[in-house]
Write a structure and sequence with these properties.
The complex is a heterodimer of chains A (326) and B (334). With 326 residues, chain A is an alpha/beta fold. Chain A has 9 helices and 12 strands. Chain A has a single domain, classed as Rossmann fold (3-Layer(aba) Sandwich), CATH 3.40.50. In chain A, the strands form 2 sheets. Chain A has an 8-stranded mixed sheet, sandwiched between helices. In chain A, strands 2-1-4-5 form a 4-stranded antiparallel sheet. Chain B is an alpha/beta fold. Chain B contains 13 helices and 12 strands. In chain B, strands 6-7-8-3-9-10-12-11 form an 8-stranded mixed sheet, with helices on both faces. A 4-stranded antiparallel sheet of chain B has the order 2-1-4-5. The relative contact order of chain B is 0.13. The chains are: A alpha/beta (326), B alpha/beta (334). Chains A and B meet through helix 5, helix 6, helix 7, helix 8 and helix 9 of A and helix 7, helix 8, helix 9, helix 10 and helix 11 of B. The complex binds adenosine-5'-triphosphate (ATP) (2 copies), iron/sulfur cluster (2 copies) and magnesium ion (MG) (2 copies). One magnesium ion binds next to helix 1 of chain A. Chain B: GO terms for molecular function: ATP binding; ATP hydrolysis activity.
Chain lengths: 326, 334
């Protein structure tokens, strides 16, 4: 039995929409609306879905950069949502984040050494000499050299900056890394370098990854298990191979069929979805996908399908797989 | 042989910056035939957008087209006045820009923006132009076309705005449509809709399309022919099928291998070592040599020329001077 590192239960984030001169609440953005999943030690869990479906909001709540509206998160068995900022500090060391935009997330006025050293200072680890030694070690781990330590972020290419971001995340020996679109801003040839680096680090250091991305090819490559999000919910979750070869939810099927494949000979039946993704401030009734679903039935517009295990390890929320419809 | 609609030859566009002269487009040659879909692929900074802006003569200081010819229907566009170019833009050659908001004005209604070009180029009255605009919005698959005419750009979703941009570029039936990363900012399910639409327009109106993208999947999906750019130069060109089956330039080979595939999981991704060079930073030899695993002495001495590499394919690589040398690539490809 695999050991759980992080258990997320019915996590929600509702943002108030304020309007009018009195700044009254005129609505709610249900950015994340009841997300449940478990990360096992040493695995990579991929979270995919289209723009605005709530991937980053989920990641930010797990980092406690955002306070959840509802739900439970257990880290190493300990409930962490109720922890105070102070109590949270110890846990912070164990959970680190890598961001999409390597440029925006690095202070342009600090040297690389200072950037990587910062988390060590925050967590009061080592003396000055030990920290310097650790920075050099980290630079080498991520494929840079110790002579890079004195340079500034703008002197690096996008791929190198992402390596610096990874080095900073690794500085305090975290157990879990939440990577939010870590390769989306990179060129194809550089993206492959960073993905390989993340895989190597995981093997060497036994890291657990929550890998957030919209690129389905990248997610398939890196993930052991995958959750597909739509409008603030996970609609399907399974082992990566199962999900890609035998997806059950009509949204996953459409999403996978929409990805252009780098092979002109590959003929495929594409499911072209009509319409746009509905707004999370005004989500459809019943199944949130029913407005675009090619397989929608009468029941779909009124009853919310339950997220259930339909085969061992394979979960989905769709009325097609409920007993009375099969 | 049929005459290409548009022919670009030895195009050079340089930027004159404080750091010196940057050859962003460095002697680029390509053509596009009637009804063809040509893909220009390459990584960030390789010169794709600058190439297309040069064709439209929209390069702004500190940039300047410093050499070459752009022949459209037998005439060199580079000798045209701004007034003559204004007639050609939109009317003859339409363009969808990489930054959608730069071409949609946020303070004007969609309808007014659409009919402006139609009225200028077609010399139609307002009513006729309005009706034509509605029919184009319907052609690009937008619902509620009549109502949309009275709405503002910010009222539309990203996918809808992109359709409006395509409608705008298609409104005067251009011979050539240049689309710079038309789907990059969109979700895959919306991208699939837009690519379907472009295929349909190409089929039904026989418009030639130059599609600029860094996404090899998109290229494979809709292009007949491909030009691969690296560091301001074309490094490979040929038919889409041939390039994907038998890429002839080490960079193209690496690029195709680096892409994670949704259909199969590769054990480990192939990755090209090093970084993409800034244009102008390499002064001698092949620009790809510092990253190329096939590089030999000559590569560091002399900049290669585009060489025939079989089946209508050309590659800027010294390996193709000699069949025996080129054979190494065959082994990698299989
Ligand atoms: N601070 C906020 N206030 C109000 N709404 C917000 C806020 N932050 C995010 N949202 C909304 O929540 C939804 C989910 O946003 P989120 O950034 O999590 O999406 P995402 O899946 O990461 O998308 P992307 O792929 O574009 O990064 C969006 O509709 C967004 O507009
Ligand atoms: N305004 C400018 N000033 C100086 N140099 C410029 C300017 N615009 C472009 N360049 C140079 O031209 C090169 C090519 O830029 P271009 O925009 O054509 O790249 P691209 O291939 O379209 O990249 P992307 O995929 O990022 O859109 C850049 O590397 C840059 O060096
Ligand atoms: S529940 Fe109905 S609408 Fe939702 S995905 Fe399943 S079939 Fe489609
Ligand atoms: S010319 Fe030499 S360095 Fe350049 S791509 Fe060919 S083999 Fe590689
Ligand atoms: Mg996000
Ligand atoms: Mg560009």
């Amino acid at each position: 039995m695999q050991e759980a590192l992080l258990e997320v239960k019915q996590l929600k984030k509702h943002f108030p929409i304020e309007g009018g001169v009195l700044k009254q609440q005129v609505g709610t953005v249900k950015a994340v609306d009841g997300v449940t999943f478990t990360l096992h030690k040493g695995e990579t869990f991929g979270l995919v879905g289209e723009s605005g479906c709530g991937k980053s909001t989920t990641g930010r709540m797990l980092m406690r950069l955002l306070e959840p509206s509802e739900g439970e998160v257990l880290f190493d068995g300990k409930e962490m949502i109720s922890l105070s900022k102070n109590e949270m500090r110890h846990l912070r060391k164990d959970i680190q984040m890598v961001f999409q935009d390597p440029f925006a997330s690095l202070n342009p006025r600090h040297t690389v050494e200072k950037i990587i050293e910062e988390p060590l200072i925050v967590h009061k680890l080592g003396n000055k000499a030990e920290r310097k030694k650790r920075v050099k070690e980290l630079l080498e781990i991520v494929g840079l050299s110790s002579y890079h330590a004195k340079r500034y972020p703008h002197q690096f290419s996008g791929g190198q900056r992402q390596r610096i971001g990874i080095a900073r995340a690794l500085a305090v020996n975290p157990k879990l890394i939440i990577a939010d679109e870590p390769v989306s801003a990179l060129d194809v040839s550089i993206q492959a370098q960073v993905l390989n680096l993340l895989e190597d680090l995981q093997k060497e250091l036994g890291l657990t990854y929550l890998f957030i991305a919209h690129d389905l090819g990248v997610v398939r490559h890196i993930s052991d298990r995958v959750g597909v999000m739509y409008l603030g919910r996970i609609v399907e979750m399974a082992d990566s191979e199962k999900l890609y070869l035998n997806s059950k939810h009509p949204y996953t099927q459409a999403l996978l069929s929409a990805v252009p494949v780098p092979d002109p000979e590959y003929g495929k039946d594409r499911i072209i979805l009509t319409g746009d993704v509905p707004s999370p401030s005004n989500p459809p009734s019943g199944c949130p996908f029913h407005t675009r679903c090619p397989k929608a039935m009468d029941v779909c517009s009124s009853v919310v399908p339950e997220f259930r295990e339909i085969e061992p390890g394979h979960h989905t929320a769709c009325h097609l797989y409920e007993e009375d419809h099969v | 042989m049929e005459q290409p609609v548009l022919n670009v030859s030895k195009l050079k566009t340089h930027f004159f910056t404080d750091d010196g002269e940057i050859p962003a487009v460095d002697s680029v040659d390509f053509h596009i035939n009637k009804g063809e879909v040509l893909g220009i692929v390459g990584e960030s900074g390789s010169g794709k957008s600058v190439t297309s802006l040069s064709i439209m003569q929209l390069i702004q200081a500190p940039g300047k087209v410093v050499g070459g010819e752009i022949t459209y229907k037998g005439e060199n566009l580079l000798t045209k006045s701004e007034k003559e170019m204004r007639k050609i833009r939109g009317n003859e050659i339409g363009m969808i820009f990489q930054e959608p908001m730069t071409s949609l004005n946020p303070v004007f209604r969609i309808g007014n923006q659409l009919i402006e070009g139609i009225r200028i180029h077609k010399k139609w009255n307002k009513k006729k132009a309005w009706e034509h605009a509605i029919s184009i919005l319907k052609l690009v698959g937008l619902p509620r076309a009549e109502e949309l005419m009275n709405e503002y750009p910010h009222q539309l979703s990203g996918g809808m705005r992109q359709r409006v941009m395509i409608a705008m570029a298609m409104a005067c039936d251009p011979e050539v449509l240049i689309a710079d990363e038309p789907t990059t900012a969109l979700d895959v399910t919306i991208q699939a809709q837009i690519l379907e639409l472009m295929k349909k327009l190409n089929r039904e109106t026989n418009t030639s399309i130059i599609l600029i993208t860094h996404d090899l999947g998109v290229v494979a999906e809709i292009c007949d022919r491909i030009v691969v750019m690296y560091s301001g130069k074309i490094v490979e060109q040929g038919n889409t099928k041939d390039i994907f089956q038998q890429p002839k330039h080490p960079y193209t080979i690496g690029l195709i291998e680096s892409v994670p595939d949704v259909r199969v999981r590769k054990d480990r991704l192939y990755s090209i070592p090093g970084n993409v060079p800034k244009p102008g930073s390499i002064h001698k030899g092949c620009h790809f040599a510092p990253r190329c695993s096939f590089a030999f002495d000559k590569c560091f001495e002399e900049d290669p020329v585009l060489l025939d590499a079989g089946s209508n394919q050309q590659a800027r690589c010294w390996l193709h001077e000699d069949e025996k040398k080129a054979a190494v690539l065959e082994r990698v490809n299989s």
